[in-house]
# Entry
Amino acid sequence: MLHERQLIVIRSDSVTIRGFTLRNVGVSSVDDRAAIRVERARHCRIEGNRIENGFFGIYLAGAADCLITGNRLEAQGSRESASGNGIHLWYSRGVTIRGNVIRGHRDGIYFEFAKHSRVEDNVSEGNIRYGLHFMFSDSSVYRGNVFRANRSGVAVMYTSHVDMEDNQFLDNWGSATFGLLLKDIRDSRIVGNWFERNSVAVYAEGSDRMQVERNAFLENGWAVKLMANSEDNRFVANNFEANSFDVSTNSRQSFSEFEGNYWDEYRGYDLDRDGTGDVAFRPVRLFSLIVEQNEPSLILLRSFLVWLLDAAEAVIPALTPEALMDARPRMQRLDLGNKRRAAA
# Structure
């Protein structure tokens, strides 16, 4: 049975909803119907519930200082227009979202104007659009989450002072698909994350003053796509292994810094044995610039012609960005301490 209205609406402070099973909220193109909705309330707890086909699962509007923990939200959405978000925050503050499992929604978790909030230890997978979608949500933290097999992993847009630590971005494959999409963000940290088997692990456009440190980039199509309008970013002590392209950009200029990273493609030497290569490494392949201008050329990736292009560019760099280089590449893989964990 589909319910044409919301199931539980909270408009009072300090309410706890625990241990319910809620099902089958009907789809609406007019109303954001939710299984549980909190409106202009504070200090509420939504804990240990199961929500099946909730359209919007848990919806907070104008709420503050609430806790959403230990819930399981599952839907069978197939189209964005007929699906809602699993956990949705709008104009809310100080909310903690911890230890939830969200599957099959439009966005697993969605923030819009939701500031000073935390997203910790959740699993968001198999969602139609994003595992987590941040917009205009400054001074927030997401840590220890798993974003797996979503159409795109995470999008952070028009936001500043966000900490993104110790998350896993796994198996987000497809055209125009990203592990982490950054657009117009400022003064944020991306530290200790694990990016494995994503079409593009990190895509940054118009994003400035980011600290990207101690992340593992493994078996991605592109590890980092860094557009030239992103400035003053630092990529330090990351591991780049078995990616088709480690770094790609759309310009011969670079306004960001790479230092002390491990690159499995580096073929330099270390005569003084200090663990750092004596020759700088340029991670942008000439072929990546060709693909940026003409995507169908990607079919030639494993060809002998591309190998010749890369070899020639390595000997006489002419077209790849001269300023985009790691002057102190590490000779050995860095022990980052961010081991991949089993997901729920």
Remarks:
- The radius of gyration is 22 Å.
- The CA atoms of residues 175 and 310 lie 25 Å apart.
